[in-house]
Amino acid sequence: MGKLLYLDNAATTKTAPEVVEAMLPYFTEHYGNPSSVYSFAAGNKEVISKEREAIANTLGAKANEIYFTAGGSESDNWALKATAEAYADKGKHIITTKIEHHAILHTAEYLEKRGFEITYVDVDEDGKVKLDELKKAIRPTTILISVMFANNEIGTIQPIKEIGEIAKEHGILFHTDAVQAYGQLPINVDEYHIDMLSASGHKLNGPKGIGFLYIRKGVKIRSFVHGGAQERKRRAGTENVPGIVGIGTAAVRADKTMKERTAKETEVRDYLIDRVLKEIPYCRLNGHRTDRLPNNANFSFRFVEGESLLIMLDMKGICASSGSACTSGSLDPSHVLLAIGLPHEIAHGSLRLTINEEITKEDIDYVVDNLKEIVAHLRNMSPLYEDFVKKQK
Ligand SMILES: *Cc1c(COP(=O)(O)O)cnc(C)c1O
Question: CB of 8 closer than 6 A to ligand 1?
């Protein structure tokens, strides 16, 4: 079999073997419904409490502030829609940013159609939210500020503590989509004044289809799924017990290994960034140079088409992402790259590489050596590049 280098860990991660192992008995042996009264199912109720507590501990939260969902998208939808509904009598204005994940942006658009006003705050050229703009956007009717902890495309980490303080000062709820940050960065909900936080299992070596929403005690929040009394009557449906065990195990594992793992990833990431910037001409790094996720690198190459780059990397066994929406057949470049000020033609030539703890410098050498050749090859076929070279002479 040929080489396979998986460098798309922002899209999803491998489920850790110990996570799979912890989950298995909840499919085959302990399959009882946690709501049943007989003792056969009693252990399942207990294991849910245990995992809820373990996750709460990683955030400095209380167990009864963690609500299990079917993933990051559901948590984001819930946070925005339920807050909008519960606080509509106070006001109908919500502040978010231009670089959020579509789970936030499309939910915001949905709310706009239902009479809410949304302000999409700008970011600077590194992808950091402009705090002065955020402050200016606040109105007496603002009920919620939702800003992602770290961006999934360019990796930039936001000044979450400052944003939390601004929200608190004005008595506005603060939600953060921490799907990329949770498990990679230390988070304490009290220190950062976070009222709601979204996370997802499959982004931290846990299973897909499970996530949670942290909701601070005292926040008025409506049920998201109506039905049974699960999740304190806020989110009905028989609990995904194997998934809950999976995300709990993954969260504890990520928390325990965070320091060592992210130090190693940061070193390999920086090696990758340095080599690419030094050895490939007409190339830029997108996102903040240092305030970025330990596993994220995002580049734009002039005179190169991102999709062609991905196909040629795939032929070398390298899984990467363009960081643009082109994959769905749409030709719109990424909203994040446009928000940091990249012109369309440069945003189109972008590449996101997201590593994990298993990726070594030797792997990076293989990637960069191939990337150099591929970029040169694609430029040689580009009439724009030909013109550019002629003009240089
Ligand atoms: C992946 C991702 C989501 C969606 O999470 P799912 O569990 O796949 O629904 C939301 N926000 C961010 C920042 C993400 O990276």
Answer: no
Span 76-115, pLDDT tens digits: 999 999 999 999 999 999 999 999 999 999 999 999 999 9
Count CB neighbours of 47 within 10 A: 21
**302: helix, coil or strand?**
coil
Please state, rounded to an integer, the average pLDDT across all residues of the chain: 95
Q: What is the pTM of this model?
A: 0.97
Residue type, 326: C
274 Cα to the center of ligand 1, angstroms: 28
Spell out a b/e string for 318-330, using b for 16 or more CB atoms within 10 Å of the CB, else e. Answer: bbbbbbbebeeee
Please give the backbone phi and psi of residue 94, each rounded to the nearest 5 degrees, phi first: -125, 140
DSSP, collapsed to helix, strand or coil, labels residue 287 as coil
Closest CA relative to residue 58, chosen from 265, 256, 211, 294? 256
Determine the Cα–Cα distance for residues 268 and 355; give it in Å rounded to an integer: 8
| Tokens describing residue 319 | 């899984």
Q: What is the DSSP string of 173-221?
A: EEEEE-TTTBTTB---TTTTT-SEEEEEGGGTTS-TT-EEEEE-TT---
Beta bridge partners of 66: 214
Q: Residue 184 and residue 161: Cα distance in Å, rounded? A: 17
Q: In the beta sheet, which residues pair with residue 321?
A: 352
Q: Which of 73, 102, 185, 187 to mutate to test the pocket of ligand 1 (most atoms within 8 A of CB)?
A: 73
